[in-house]
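Protein: Enoyl-CoA hydratase
Species: Protofrankia coriariae
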Amino acid sequence: MTDIRYPDYESLELDWPEPHVLRVTLSRGRMNSLDFQMHRDLSSIWRLIDEDPEVSAVVLAGKGRAYSAGGDFDMVQRIIDDYDFRCQMWKEGRALVQNMLDCGKPIVSAISGAAAGGGLATALLADVSVAGRTAKLVDGHTTLGVAADDHAVAIWPLLCGLSKAKYYLMTSDAITGEEAERIGLVTFCVDDNLVDKHALHIASRLAHGAPSAIRWTKQSLNNWVRAAWPSFEASLAFGILGFTGPEATEGLAALREKRAPNFVQRSYI
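Structure follows.
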């Protein structure tokens, strides 16, 4: 169907549910948690999609009962332990956001179940987001003991306002799909069993629209996010810096042991 050669991805499934609609499905088991390879593939695929003349719209979904549970614990441990890998993940995190913004094709995310961390970043950076009523959206970085980075500082204030963004990003409270729609964090909330159908309907409609007009409109609107780039860069740097300290070590240990973290409250920051 296309001259673009997509790699044989380990954890991404590609199919064409409608003419000119490419569906990218996160498929890794483990609630589609992101390891390094999956994170890298999600960062780089948008350049190929942007270059593919057969793609007019994209659906981004998760396989099974979760969209994506966020970063794999082993990957997080490696970020804590390995300076070179930490720098690599900083670079990949930056590329993920930039490449999704620069991809001219409209992206529609279908959010079912849990969506957290880097997985949530892809869901909310989509141009249109469809969440199930019981979907559970959580940034989760401060629970881990690092600053909210990935995407949140750049786009949450635009979607739901600074007041809500501050509260949810500092507390790491989870948000249902219904509440996410109410505050403007997602575009639509539908019954859980209708998420994929509704997302595909929107993508198909966009795929039948005027391609250049839609893509130029998207690129113009994305300048609002690009205007927040200095804030995003700062958040990404602070997030990576946090992995060098004791809070990330305690946060990861608490998540592994399924207990509340015990952060030392005396701080010179």
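Remarks: The radius of gyration is 18 Å.
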